[in-house]
Amino acid sequence: MTIHFHREMESVKSQILRLGTMVEEQLYHAIRAVEELDEDLAKTVISQDDRIDQKEVEIEEECLKVLALHQPVAIDLRLLVAVMKINSDLERIGDTASNIADTVAYLKANQSDSRKSFAFRTMADKARALFKRSLDSLINMDEQLATEVCAGDAEIDELHRSMYEMVEEGIKSHPENVGVYLRYLRISRNLERVGDHATNIAEDVLYMARGHIFRHVHEN
Prior knowledge:
Order of helices and strands: HHHHHHH
Shape: elongated
Number of helices: 7
Low-confidence stretches: none
Radius of gyration: 19 Å
Largest sheet: none
CATH architecture: Up-down Bundle
Number of strands: 0
Distance between the termini: 38 Å
CATH topology: Methane Monooxygenase Hydroxylase, Chain G, domain 1
């Protein structure tokens, strides 16, 4: 392969890592906006979603260009395929951040005591941590860390199930707060999706490293 090809591959890797950083910041700000009921911060998160969408398109176009011009094989081909899949997962995490931020205006206008029973911080911390670890596994091509990420999603799934039960009980006890509870469930569902996308990223890291598809097959 030519020097030009290797430069293009390095550019693709740099771009996907930059997108990961952008999305990580979006998720952090969305969570903070909910915690602080900060409408201005929430609006900023929502407005930034277009930047992430555009970056996703640019990365996909770059990957397709490299595939068409150089027809890479083996590990280079796996890297490009994995980057395109990771690119999609990152864009979707950006969407979840926007969805979370979109609840802030309603929650601020309809504050209630039910907020005290909403275990938002625990789930948010775990989802963010899992996502960050998936990015770290990508940056360092760390197979062990990627495997741990794949195993770590179950805890977030369990928290989401608990949240669903809490919301169901809350609506029965305080039907006047149904709108608030439904938005809590929306936040929880989006955090659960962050965990799913983080797992997808980790599986793609394993695919790059080992050449095997690990989707739906997690190691113990």
